[in-house]
Design brief:
Layout lengths: L1 E3 H5 L10 H9 L4 E7 L6 E13 L5 E8 L10 E5 L9 E5 L4 E2 L3 E2 L3 E3 L2 E3 L2 E2 L17 H4 L2 H5 L16 E6 L10 H12 L21 E3 L11 E10 L9 H9 L7 H13 L3 E5 L7 E5 L5 E3 L5 E3 L5 E5 L3 E5 L3 E2 L12 E8 L1 H10 L5 H6 L8 H16 L2 E2 L4 E3 L8 E3 L3 H6 L5 H10 L3 E5 L2 E5 L10 H12 L19 H15 L3 E2 L5 E2 L1 H6 L24 E2 L4 H13 L5 E8 L19 H10 L5 E8 L1 E3 L8 E2 L2 H14 L5 E4 L5 E10 L5 E8 L1 H6 L7 E6 H8 L14 E10 L4 H12 L3 E10 L8 E10 L7 H19 L2 E2 L1
Parallel strand pairs: 13-16, 28-31
Antiparallel strand pairs: 1-12, 2-12, 3-4, 3-6, 4-5, 6-11, 7-8, 9-10, 14-22, 14-23, 14-24, 15-22, 16-19, 17-18, 19-20, 20-21, 25-27, 26-27, 29-30, 31-32, 32-38, 33-34, 35-36, 36-37, 37-38, 39-41, 39-42, 40-41
């Protein structure tokens, strides 16, 4: 909302020398944020000029310019006439015009200088309204003798400073109005806040005499058979009629200037009057051509199939929730509170005007405005709350202005139907501001503040009964009133105190473990990412989930961010693979990513809806808690491209299934767990290149391996992309308490190698487990360092070479190491049928 300072002076006392910055600072003290300070952009010599000569000259391009000699008095330092080229033709010799001389600056930081043009040196510019920022008229220059009052023109002489005469030194403060302060979308509201901040008197422009009606005027019916949330769409409608106006009459200069200062374009007398009253009082108005109305005005909801061409010449399809102003209940005239229709628009032939001033439901207006994508000055005010008590005064002011400047006559009848609900009284504890804010607010100050903002305060003993003013629909409860008390004294009075951290608190074990896992994966070269946890059924198909897969059961969002992704993910790979694809498609071909996040395990069951106004029962709370699906925390990995880039050391090595298995085992090792792997089949992995990651007791906590080729094709991923996903919550729970490091031995290790031949289908992990079981507690480590297939071991067979490292509290002999190795081999032979090579 723009608030011209000169207009503000008419409603409250503003210091004579106050600038825009001073007014903005005053408004900031009561919570109105400054957006900008406008005005004062024209500087330098802008003076009165008297046209002495005007010589038209036709140019080769067919354009005619005027070579003028203009008397600018002593403003040019010589007193000689100023030679100026002007392309406008709406002036003549003897006219007084606005001249900006070299050195002056126009809006937009456009500096004027003498320059040669059309064969002459033009030393200045004769200005139009648009060039001075006074309007959008640039068809001709400003002729002062036509556009200023005669008494002002009579006092002007060539060379006089025009900046104060045209109000170009006036400043306008632009205020950012928050949704709860809708009353500040008017000069009435801004002036009230300024007076509140400065403690100066406030002259309410709505405090005017409303003519007593001799009888009912134009018939108005309020019909709402489908109120939104039980609130009627219109609870007050005032209609006044003015007859015999001259619709072509020009709006007064002061009104056009005021509208321009607040950012509105003057259009015609009827439109300018309604806009002026709206900007002054905050009450949107609408003017109808009475001759285009056939019957009574009826306010009702739209019917299916109805259409309306609005003033912006767009035909709009209406829905039953739209609140309409109709002619006789049949023909739509306007979308209530949003925009009028073209069929009843006031035009140059209009003589009789019906002025509408109504109070519409904020929710109805807001929904219609968004539905039709029509954000208008009227809808911005109605959806934030308009003062229902100012309706009749706004209509009266509009009628008075139309009569005064349009030459019409107002009917002595009027229509005022509907009764708005009065504001509800709020029981209020006067000690609440002190307890909430932390400062001392005496009872007297609380009462005085609430009274100053317009509330009616009744003393109820220890408490107060506060009735908010009609222009403050945002005041609904005690905390709202606390905010008012705090802002009027000043938010700057509230000290900033940094909360003191209590002793003995820190990260939980789960938080420490998750950070450990994240650091471990980052240290191996992976990059952490974060993806939105929303997916679609199409993604489940692309990942190859069977129809009965539990991962297809999830929660569907009622209001998703994207219609294409309405489901909560059941696996981090549902969304992480998108991030990998996006990186690869943008040139980062060697990518290894990981993400730690929540997944949804299962769907949601129907939950009880507790009644409003009361706490839910213990049974309802239990059913709600048990009905919400579990959301375990997983860690997922996805990689493509090269694990080791090409370089002087040799060619690149592509990332493989063994890499992602190693990263998965590193998660457990970071928490002190020795995770195991065994061959498995699970979508979306390649059936022959997938392992299940298990705990020591055999519980599966995840899977790792290479993605199925069909999945890579469906998701546009590179071939041989690898991935893994682990249940991090389960791994952390299995890790238990922090691991106590083992005592380091000073004895030398004893290494021995063994090669075992097994069938191709025997997992290496099974052989390793058997070796570890047979070797006993003295086995320090077991490493698979070679896999061989060939004629020497036979078709369908493979040779697995392991290194066994033993260490005890003394030096082991060769015979002792051999005996331990033989026990391990015997165990492997018994468990897997392995034969030593």
């Amino acid at each position: 909302m723009r608030a011209p300072i000169e207009w503000l002076r008419e409603l409250t006392e503003v210091e004579p020398g106050a600038k825009g910055a001073d007014v903005a600072a005053t408004l900031v003290r009561v919570g109105l944020e400054e957006e900008d300070i406008l005005g004062g952009e024209v500087t330098g010599p802008l003076v009165v000029g008297k046209v002495l000569e005007r010589t038209p000259e036709e140019q080769k391009n067919g354009k005619t310019i005027n070579w003028c000699q203009v008397d600018v008095g002593a403003a040019n330092g010589t007193g000689e006439p100023q030679g100026i080229v002007c392309g406008a033709h709406n002036f003549d010799v003897g006219d007084l015009v606005a001249v900006i001389l070299p050195g002056g600056v126009l809006p937009g930081n456009f500096e004027i200088s003498a320059r040669k043009t059309y064969g002459h040196v033009s030393a200045g510019m004769i200005c139009s309204a648009m060039e001075l920022g006074l309007g959008e008229d640039h068809d001709g220059i400003i002729v002062l003798t036509e556009q200023l009052p005669a008494d002002v023109v009579g006092a002007l002489a060539p060379g006089d400073d025009l900046i104060p005469v045209l109000g170009l030194d006036a400043e306008t403060v632009e205020v950012n109005v928050t949704p709860d302060r809708g009353y500040c979308f008017s000069m009435r509201g801004i002036a009230r806040e300024y007076a509140l901040s400065e403690g100066t008197p406030f002259a309410d422009p709505a405090d005017l005499t409303v003519a007593t009606a001799t009888g009912p005027g134009h018939e108005v019916r309020l019909v709402d058979d489908a109120p939104v949330d039980g609130v009627p769409g219109c609870d007050r409608f005032v209609a006044r009629v003015v007859r015999g106006i001259d619709a072509t009459a020009e709006s007064p200069e002061w009104m056009r200037r005021r509208l321009t200062e607040v950012g509105m374009r003057p259009i015609s007398l009827a439109v300018d009057v309604t806009n002026y009253v709206m900007m002054l009082l905050g009450q949107p108005l609408h003017a109808y051509d009475l001759a285009k109305l056939d019957g009574a005005i009826e306010v009702r909801r739209a019917r299916a199939g109805e259409r309306l061409t609005t003033l912006d010449d767009v035909e709009r399809e209406l829905v039953p929730e739209d609140l309409l102003i109709t002619d006789g209940g049949t023909t739509p005239l306007a979308i209530a509170g949003v925009m009028g229709g073209a069929s009843s628009e006031v035009d140059d032939a209009t003589t009789d005007v019906l002025v509408e001033a109504a109070h519409f439901d904020a929710v109805s207006v807001a929904r219609s405005a968004r539905r039709h994508r029509l954000t208008t000055e009227a809808s911005k005010r109605f959806e934030r709350g308009v003062d229902p008590a100012v309706t009749a005064a706004a209509a009266q002011l509009a009628v008075d202005l139309l009569v005064e400047h349009g030459g019409g006559t107002a009917d002595d009848t009027a229509t005022d139907v509907g009764t708005p609900a009065p504001p509800a009284a709020i029981p209020f504890d006067p000690t609440l501001p002190s307890r909430y804010i932390g400062l001392d607010y005496p009872r007297e100050e609380v009462v005085a503040t609430l009274t100053a903002i317009g509330c009616a305060v009744a003393d109820e003993g220890e408490s107060l009964l506060v009735t908010p003013p009609t222009w403050r629909p945002d005041l609904e409860d005690g905390p709202d009133l606390v905010e008012e008390v705090a802002r009027v004294r000043g938010y700057d009075q509230i000290p900033s105190v940094v909360p003191r951290a209590s002793a003995g608190r820190g990260l939980t074990k789960g938080q420490r473990d998750r950070r450990t896992v994240a650091r471990t994966l980052a240290a191996t070269g992976l990059v952490e990412v974060l993806s939105y946890p929303f997916t679609s059924e199409g993604r489940f198909d692309a990942l190859g989930y069977p129809a009965d897969d539990a991962r297809r059961t999830t929660v569907r969002l009622a209001n998703p961010l994207q219609d294409e992704a309405p489901l909560m993910r059941t696996s981090i790979l549902d969304t992480l693979l998108d991030t990998l694809r996006r990186n690869v498609s943008r040139g980062h071909r060697d990518a290894a990513l990981y993400e730690i996040g929540l997944v949804t395990a299962g769907g949601i069951t129907p939950l009880p809806v507790p009644p409003g106004g009361a706490l839910p029962s213990a049974g309802d709370l239990e059913r709600i808690t048990t009905g919400v699906p579990a959301q375990p925390r997983h860690v997922a990995i996805a990689a493509a491209g090269a694990a080791v880039p090409a370089g002087p050391h040799g060619p690149a090595r592509a990332v493989g299934a063994s890499d992602v298995v190693g990263w998965s085992l590193a998660v457990g090792a970071a928490l002190g767990l020795d995770l195991q792997v065994e061959a498995a089949q699970r979508e979306p992995f390649h059936p022959g290149r997938c392992v299940a990651v298990t705990l020591a007791d055999g519980s599966v906590v995840g899977h790792a391996g290479e993605l199925h080729p069909k999945v890579c094709t469906a998701l546009e991923l590179p071939e041989r992309t690898v991935a893994a996903e682990l249940d991090l919550d389960a791994i952390i729970a299995a890790a238990g308490d922090p691991v106590t490091p083992a005592q380091l031995s000073t004895q030398p290790p004893a290494n021995t190698d063994v090669a075992l031949v097994v069938d191709e289908g025997v997992p290496a992990a099974a052989v390793a487990a058997a070796l570890r079981s047979g070797a006993g507690d003295d086995l320090e480590s077991l490493t698979l360092f070679d896999v061989f297939r060939g004629d020497q071991v036979g078709e369908g067979r493979k040779s697995l070479a392991y290194r066994l490292t033993f260490r005890t509290d003394r030096t082991l002999t060769t015979d002792e190491v051999s005996a331990l190795r033989d026990k391990a081999v015997a165990s492997a032979a018994s468990a897997t049928g392995a034969q030593q090579r």
